[in-house]
Amino acid sequence: MMVSRDYIESVIAKQMRIDGRKFDEYRKIEIEYGVSSKSAEGSARVKIGDTEVVAGVKLELGSPFSDKPGEGSIMVNVELLPLSSPLFESGPPSIDAIELSRVTDRGIRESKAIDFKKLCVREGEKVWLIFIDIYPINAGGNLFDACGLVALAALRDAVFPKLDGDKIDYHVKTKTKVPLTKLPISCTVWKVNNELIVDPCLEEEMASNARLSVVYTEAGEICAMQKGGDSPLTSEEIAQILDLAEIKSQELRRHFK
User: How many domains does the chain have?
Assistant: First the structure.
């Protein structure tokens, strides 16, 4: 049963959270690889507390963009299924789904986590295209970080299928991995009743009025940011968020070692 926004705010005001965690504490994180090895070139499942998402990576041949004839590309799609939450509806992608897709895509793309030049088959003609499809199984809060983690995990699991000329044999997998050179980690910090927290449960997320997703590389460089929510953030709050997100991104990265 959902609890009210007023209750969440009253608990936060007491420097507490409804599940007993600290403001800067994530729920238990689990990462599983190869959950759909027969239907995808790479796949993974990520659980953050009650939140569960799966992702599959498909590799296809296509034409490069005219301004990047020697580089492949990626496309990220997040589908918010009604089975994962009564808040989601069937039909065209919602604004929330589009934002989740773009934030996840931007973190990978802007960090140059993938060596796109190594996806080139014939310059100006054929390149590998990487499709990352993400499906929440249970939307229990903090899908932004969950989607970022599961996309990286699925990419780490992915291998190229056999290529004979321009024909792909999806039944035969090579040992060649997707050229993933960096691990950009996204940490989203949420503002609830003037306090900053990470990894909100669904009730805390719905009580939030602002959030900021920050993607960090291993070197501590910011490669992407996304502001959400109706309320503004002060310069002081943004500085606090950046410090907190950098620390938590380092903690999240340890799950890939």
Answer: 1
The CA distances from residue 34 to 15, 56, 70, 82, 222, in Å, are 40, 9, 30, 24, 29
Q: What is the 3-state secondary structure (H, E, C) of the chain?
A: CCCCHHHHHHHHHCCCCCCCCCCCCCCCEEEEECCCCCCCCEEEEEEECCEEEEEEEEEEEECCCCCCCCCCEEEEEECCCHHHCCCCCCCCCCHHHHHHHHHHHHHHHHCCCECHHHHEEECCCEEEEEEEEEEEEECCCCHHHHHHHHHHHHHHHCEEEEEECCEEEEEEEEEEECCECCCCEEEEEEEECCEEEECCCHHHHHHCCEEEEEEECCCCCEEEEEEECCCCCCHHHHHHHHHHHHHHHHHHHHHHC
The C-alpha atoms of residue 176 and residue 42 are separated, in whole angstroms, by 12
Q: How confident is the model at residue 2 (pLDDT cuts 50, 70, 90)?
A: low
Beta bridge partners of 215: 186, 224
Interval 128-159: pLDDT, tens: 999 999 999 999 999 999 999 999 999 999 99
Kindly report the CATH number assigned to the domain that includes residue 115: 3.30.230.70
Q: What is the pLDDT of residue 252?
A: 97
Are 248 and 149 within 8 A, CB to CB? no
Report if pTM > 0.85. Answer: yes
Could you list the residue range(s) of the whole structural domain that residue 167 is in? 5-256
- Beta bridge partners, 58, equal 131
